[in-house]
Design goal:
The structure holds three protein chains of three kinds. The two termini of chain A are 35 Å apart. Chain A is mostly helical. The radius of gyration of chain A is 22 Å and the shape is flat. In chain B, a hairpin with a 2-residue loop joins strand 1 and strand 2. The chains are: A mainly alpha, B alpha+beta, C mainly alpha.
Amino acid sequence: MAEELRFFLRTAAYTAVIGILYWILSYEWAGSVMLAFVAVATGLVVVVFFLVVRATRGPLGDGGGGKVRRAGLAVARLVGFAEPRGAAGAEPLAAGLEPIPVGSVWPLLAAAAASMIGLGLVYGPWLSLPGVALAAITVWGWITQLDARN
Amino acid sequence: MGRHRGLRLRAIALLAVTLALAACTQPPATVESDRVQGLYNLFLVAAAGVFVVVAGLIGWNIVRYRSRGDESLPVQTNTNLLLEIIWWALPTLLVIGLFVASAAVLNTNDARHAGSPLQVKVEGFQWQWRFTYLESRVQLTGAPGSPPELVLPVGATIDFELASDDVIHAFFIPSFLVKRDTVPGVDNHLQLTIDQPGTYTGQCAEFCGLLHDQMRFTIRAVSPSEFTTWLASQRAAP
Amino acid sequence: MTTAELQQRARGPVLAGERAGIVDFLTTTDHKRIGLLYLFTGLGFFLLAGALSLVMRAELTFPDLQFLDEATYNQLFTMHGTGMIFFFASPVVFGLANYFIPLQIGAPDVAFPRLNALTYWLALGGGLIAFSGFLVGGAAAFGWTGYVPLSGPIFSPGSGSNLWIIGLVFAGTSGILGAVNFVATIFSMRAPGMTMFRMPVFTWNMLVTSLLIMLTFPVLTGALALLFIDRTLGGHVFDPAAGGSAILWQHLFWFFGHPEVYILILPFFGVVTEIIPVFSGKPVFGYRGFVFATMLIGVLSYSVWAHHMFTTGVVSNLFFAITSMMIAIPTGVKFFNWIATMWRGRLRFQTPMLFCIGFLLMFLVGGLTGPFLASPAIDYAVHDTYYVVAHFHYVLFGGSVFAAFAALYYWLPKMTGHMLDERLGVAHFWLTLVGMNLTFFPMHLLGLEGMPRRIADYPASSGWTLLNVIISGGSAILAVSILVLAWNVVASVFLGRGAVAPDDPWGGYSLEWATSSPPPHHNFTALPPIRSERPVFDARVAASAVRPEAAEPSVPTDPSADQETDRG
């Protein structure tokens, strides 16, 4: 199993074991639930990564069967892993080979929208509602910027 | 420039100070704090030992392996399995030892005593204390600028029942080397036995708002007969 | 790019050979510019939060209140802690990570560049919002730990506390998104040949840090949301009188809060593990053991949180004592790795290495007081006293800040194309070392004498005055040391007086030294072959082997020593 997966698996294994131990020793709900959820979260990552990585990276995915591979590819496209990344097997990078985004105003505006919403939670809807509107505009602009560039 | 000498001097100075640290704690005034003081000294010796070894090695490196301008690369050693096993094993053993000592003192100090200890209810409120001797119903309440004086007998087990009227406070007596939080909604107990008569200052140790820094009290530990007399006079007074 | 070409470049903080204006920085998605924004924002909050602490120290020098009232003092220590932890240390970590993770793995940028920019603006916004409490009638004043019921609606009414919550939610969200970005980058954008176990230790440590951030900041955000609901929407989650629990806040906060301190130190362990090998002329000793120790610390940090709650009486003190002492083992082991790295090396003591040695000694002291606090019986005596303040300042200042300074001297040349002045650096180091010890060592003694923390004032009868005077004196020396650093950075970088930095001023090992200072927009024009964790070192060795008439691969001399600082 790739080191990337083992990395998450170690945390899942430890927090699962220690969570059970902690519950038995203390019957304390908050800590036990938090440990359990850390184990579930990292365990989930291992499962999803395993499917996705098996589907997209040759050395790991060669043994994949039809159904698993298709499922993995579907997930991979969903999260944007659809093709093997150029860096995983191609030549060393050179200037101009990969288009690097030059700049974008949307991150700044998104943060401004978030600030309006956040401050609006303290000061009132007169601030947060325009913030929501700006956030919607930002989401639209962010997504469509990619199309315009490509 | 004598940098290595400066560092060695600093190591020695720090060692001297750590020894001063051992002397600078409060003289223990309860049976439990005697054990804590002993445990602390054990930790201090271990920590000072580790410090001398590690700082010494660092100092040795600085002195011995300073680049003297000769341009060749040193041998590029980057692994030694035996060394790594040793330096994982030694700290582990040290930690196990310190834990065993800690568990022993903790279990003894936190053990609930059988019998009938003197019960005192301690209630923290913003920003003073209220002490109630449960059996005799004597109550002392502090006011801003006049901290209450809690009188207690030497040699008897005292059970403090800790409560809070509002936010979290902490009942802290430095000379007793102990504190316990007063948490609203939680029934906390602290048991101890004073073995040195005297007057001890106490202070709230959990930040509780505006005048947290003024939330003080004193404990006056007296002989059991003096205590009985005092308690009787408190009961009689209006 | 050759040094000659570099010398023709314009002066000042230029990136990729172009002048960058305000608009460029406002819309940038380049990880290098975002890294610089993070770094200088973090340093700005360091100055702000540091100024707050100097005001506190001025008040605490003598007994009785001189010029502050308790209400102001309580805001100062709250925002000092909040500012340093969330808006200085984290942004500096993210700044260094942003700049150097892609470079160290041979990538042209991070996986999600626009998201990267968003995380910066959220971090900046969060800091401004949290501190804006000072402008609206009072900042939060309940300590950076925000314990309930004190931080609830009854005992801390006022919008400053609400703004604090919002600011921290921003900081948390920024961190989580940034961590996701780093993990994605490290997993999927490494250059050919860069296997996981050939990554530089700094990148490894950032990977572990990112995992910690992803798993624990959501807990903080959740707790803050619940507190906000209690405060503004009539909730009673933390209200004991209505069936809620005051202790629950502590569980949630410290489940985040303890991994948080490892989030604040692990990247700096990585920085130090970059610098020490380079300045020892040797590879890091026990690379795999070191990576394993880092992962072990990360994993163990989930199970120690309630050692902050020993005095509450409601947690299993034995369980947390053993887990907390266990975590000292991998931390301590790293010291032996660092020492073995230096052993039989050729040590050079330019400023980055000076700060690393300072780090080793100061973090050693702080690390050794940790086990005392992990022993519940001892903790009962020193919890909530200046002993704890001493401990965490030794590990945070002596650890994180010293290593951050080391990183500045080591990496600012790469980031800006200018070396920092070496003599000012040495002066900065000694002032910091002396100032730091004078400020924080006596706090151990004060704690043992029973001086609680978070008090605006103490009586003369306590006998604590002398130590407080010494501490305040130390803090004044620290203030001077910061001025020296500030002047060095301003003069060398912004006024352009620092010597021009070549590609590789220090004789480095990792890929960031295989490109110009600063790197071009796309980071690399060509990469050396990656066959070990030291690709640039390997390339240097190979280059000298090819030209046998050249000297043996050598320990580089200090490049700024043989150039006059530029008065240009």
